[in-house]
Amino acid sequence: MIKIVLLGAGNVATHLYKAISATNNISVIQWYNRTLNNISLYKNEVNITDNLNELVDADLYIICVSDDAIETLSNNLPFEKRLVVHTSGSASLYDIDKKHYRGVFYPLQTFSKNVALDFTTVPICIETLRKQDFKLLKSVGETLGCQTYKVNPDQRPALHLAAVFVNNFTNQLYRVAHEITEHHGAEFDILKPLITETAKKVQDVSPYKAQTGPAKRNDKKTIKRHLKLLDNEHHEAIYKLMTSSIKKTHNGR
Q1: For residue 49, pLDDT beyond 80
Q2: Are 2 and 139 spatial neighbours (Cβ–Cβ below 8 Å)?
Q3: Closest Cα to residue 63, out of 6, 127, 124?
Q4: 96-to-76, 227, 233 alpha-carbon distances in Å
Q5: Over the range 75-104, which residues count as b (16 or more CB within 10 Å of their CB) and which as e?
Q6: pLDDT value at position 196?
Q7: Cα dist from 192 to 72, 179, 195, whole Å
Q8: Which of 115, 124, 127, 132 is nearest to 14 (CA)?
Q9: Can you tell me the distance from the alpha carbon of 108 to that of 121, in angstroms, rounded to the nearest whole number?
Q10: Are 6 and 17 in contact (CB under 8 A)?
């Protein structure tokens, strides 16, 4: 049994706790957060604490806090030479205090605390300094049913950046589309099958080959009509930027 202490109570920590609790070979034996109210819901299931000096011995300590809090929290851990990892896509492994055995256990997915997620679909990116630590983290990932990937300090931030494009930026485009349909009295729900098919298509076809639409065709009349419909300067700027990007990719312009 691999014994784990969770540090932090955000979206990632909550989903990790639920996923680990559903397994047999790994266990969260303690959950720390500086505000107990955020984890009090689980007090009958796991030992919770808001005191770092009460942390128990474990095989693995997983820091699930904001990037700018990783260094301070790891510095304040009252022990050394234990495996401490964070779950950030962009923070450096070296943000963890050097008194610990350091690593990264990065679940590359979007997490919302109250939205159910099948954790077995989550890829886990692992970065360590010691081979034995990679082996342990890989075992944790595989026990969760996840595909695991060994990444280096250049690959992980690049993956996080790419994730911002495919998730955060895409979600903002959904929001713009929602504003456009709402403004013209149309139903956003009509677009949902298109959203699903777009995500489905890229599973089998490269994004380059999957691209369609007026920008790829250099359909100037349609583009002009679209711009005329947009009476929001912000939306217009996004449309022009994306159109220009697609044209450059597919037409060299």
Answers
A1: yes
A2: yes
A3: 6
A4: 10, 49, 43
A5: eebeeeebbbbbbbbebbbebbbeebbbbb
A6: 96
A7: 43, 15, 5
A8: 115
A9: 10
A10: yes
Element (H, E) at 149: strand 148-150
Alpha helices in the chain (DSSP H): 11-21, 67-76, 131-143, 155-163, 170-183, 192-201, 207-210, 214-217, 220-229, 233-251
The 10s digit of each residue's pLDDT in 143-183 is 999 999 999 999 999 999 999 999 999 999 999 999 999 99
pLDDT of residue 253 exceeding 80, the answer is no
| The amino acid at 3 | K
Question: 32: closest CA among 18, 53, 59?
Answer: 53
Give me the torsion for CA of 128, 132, 133, 135, rounded to 10°: 100
On whether the CB atoms of residues 173 and 234 are closer than 8 A, the answer is: no
Identify whether the C-beta of residue 69 lies closer than 8 Å to the C-beta of residue 43: no
